[in-house]
Amino acid sequence: MTTMDTRVQPRLLDAAAADLGEHHRGHGPIPWQGGVGRMIGELQSAGLTGRGGAGFPTWRKVAEVATAARAVVVANGAETEPGSRKDDTLLRRCPHLVLDGVQLLVEATGADEAYLYVKPGDAMASVRHALTERHGWDRVAVRVVAAPNRFVAGEESAVLAAIAGRPARPADKWLPVVHSGLRGRATLVQNVETCAHVAQIARNGARWFRGLGTRDEPGTMLVTVHGAVREVPIGIALSELVTGPVLVGGYHGAWLSSPAPHLSRAALAPFGAAPGAGVLHPLAPGRCGLVETAAITRYLAGESAGQCGPCRNGLPATAALLSALADRTAPPDAVHRLDHLTGLVVGRGACRHPDGTARLIRSTLTVFGDEVRLHLAGRCSR
Amino acid sequence: MTDALWYLGRGTGVMALVLLTISVALGVAARSGEPLGPLPRFAVTAVHRNSGLIASVLLVGHVVTLLLDPYAQLKLIDVLVPFLGTAEPFWLGLGTLGLDLLLAVVVTSLLRMRVGVRGWRAVHWVSYAAWPVSLLHTLGMGTDAATPWLLALSVLCFVAVAAAAVYRLTLRAEVSR
Amino acid sequence: MTTLHIDWTACHGRGLCAELLPELLATDPWGYPIARTGGDVDVPAELHADAVTATKFCPRLALRLRAR
């Protein structure tokens, strides 16, 4: 299922190794940087951003956490986004690359605890097996924690709740996780793909990393299209990956009427979209965008943790209205009401689940505007 | 002077019960989540809190005056440890118990921001014990217990809290339907 | 300048805060506070005292003030 991009040499998927011996032969030992904070400058020069979806500069989080006395590093491989396979692929094919990255982040932050959060399955088995090989190789033992297969369970604070033995639900962000995360300790949560990039940057340097990607968004990223994972340079034309209307950035993403723009934050921003965790859902030929999005929205409403009133009330109401629109039974003011409902949930929750859902709905109403008018008239183009 | 203490002790006790009743009734009714008629919710909460606080102040007055009053024969230990009194140990003990429970409720409420919602709520539940205990103490211990006015007042207090409880339970039943 | 932070996981939408801070908060159709600005709510100096009252009156302790 995994293919390499034909034009460029993949940097992560290429680093596949069946065991530590092969990994060692291919990459050598962990390229220790020589102390706390020593890697921050290199990460900043590289311009690496989080590959879990939010795209926050990695060096800034590392720098914040590095100032704390006792820090925690968490590699997040929960990949609770439906249709995404990149973390699973990475952990099955090159677990040692990810674990090298975790150790380098441990060194960079001075952490004395490290966790890897992943759903039970082949990827977890691969990581567990890799960890048994790494005795004497790692500075801090990495503990594997099982992630439940719920959409919001991959959110940073939900990850920490799960590691602490509580239900994996997002928490209030009175204090940022980098200052007060697991048991109140400064905590660095990084996506497992980000960890793998950290390892490659430590080995090959920031200049090498910047050899691919755009000036403002350097490097490669893993994308999933139809369950197939590819490694592509950031800024690749979306038309090289998909055709027709496409939902970019997963279920919290935005629809594009055609894959005209390139895959980068800057190129997608004018469309209200973002690369997110690199999940692309092309609209299958003959399918109606409203019907598809209504199904996604019902799923998202069901995945609300139910903790925050606006999300618990607003998402089901939104899903019901969009479903009515898809079924051509919606009232004439459905669009206005959807605008109002999405406006009510944005920014009003412990996590970004309502915001992401609102973004999906808004892009749907824009991109499938003609379809909406047809549906309100009782018809459908498909 | 002795008479003044005795009257003051009884008066503060009765008024403490009245204010405690107001506080408990409003607390029970407000917890329904519905506004009480035209009253703003914060106003109901304010009256709930302040009547409870004034009740506590009156209760301190009640205890101090009766400690000073030679006729009451109250010892210091009776203020905190229930059921040790010489005269009417049971009815006096109920009063002591009510005081102890109320003390816990008031202290945790004043420190609510520090205690957190969970701890505060857990302790706040004992209000449901403090109020009936206080009512029984008034009826059993009170020198004026046999007088029609105190009986009428006690019935009124009981009706107020019972009405609040019925209001809340009917609303909850409506919501769950 | 302070900002008012709402812990949405604690808020039960009882609405006392919107009564005490009508200048800053309204209630949504489900009774939850909705900021006239969005996100953490900027509290002007003249409303600081009212905002403190609102944090104290929240039945769920879902409100906190942050100095900026």
Automatic annotation (TrEMBL), chain A:
- Annotated TM spans: none
Iron found in the keyword field? yes
The GO terms describing molecular function are: 4 iron, 4 sulfur cluster binding; metal ion binding
Q: Which UniProt keywords apply?
A: 4Fe-4S, Iron, Iron-sulfur, Metal-binding
Give every NADH-ubiquinone oxidoreductase 51kDa subunit iron-sulphur binding domain span.
290-335
Q: Which SUPFAM superfamilies match?
A: Nqo1 FMN-binding domain-like, Nqo1C-terminal domain-like
The record's annotation in InterPro entries points to: Nuo51_FMN-bd, Nuo51_FMN-bd_sf, Nuop51_4Fe4S-bd, Nuop51_4Fe4S-bd_sf
Asked if the record carries the keyword Phosphoprotein, the reply is: no
**Superkingdom per UniProt:** Bacteria
Protein family (similarity comment): Belongs to the complex I 51 kDa subunit family.
For this entry, the protein name equals NADH dehydrogenase subunit F
From TrEMBL, chain B:
Main localisation, per the record? membrane
- Tell me where the transmembrane regions lie: 12-30, 51-71, 91-111, 123-143, 149-171
Ranges for domain Ferric oxidoreductase come to 12-133
Membrane listed as a keyword: yes
| Key words of the record | Membrane, Transmembrane, Transmembrane helix
According to Swiss-Prot or TrEMBL, what is its membrane topology? Answer: Multi-pass membrane protein
Q: Would the keyword Lipoprotein turn up in this protein's UniProt record? A: no
Location relative to the cell: Membrane
One Gene Ontology cellular component term attached to this UniProt record is:
membrane
Task: Please give one Pfam family short name.
Answer: Ferric_reduct
Give the protein's recorded name.
Sulfoxide reductase heme-binding subunit YedZ
TrEMBL record, chain C:
Database matches in Pfam families: Fer4_15 (PF13459)
The protein here is known as: Ferredoxin
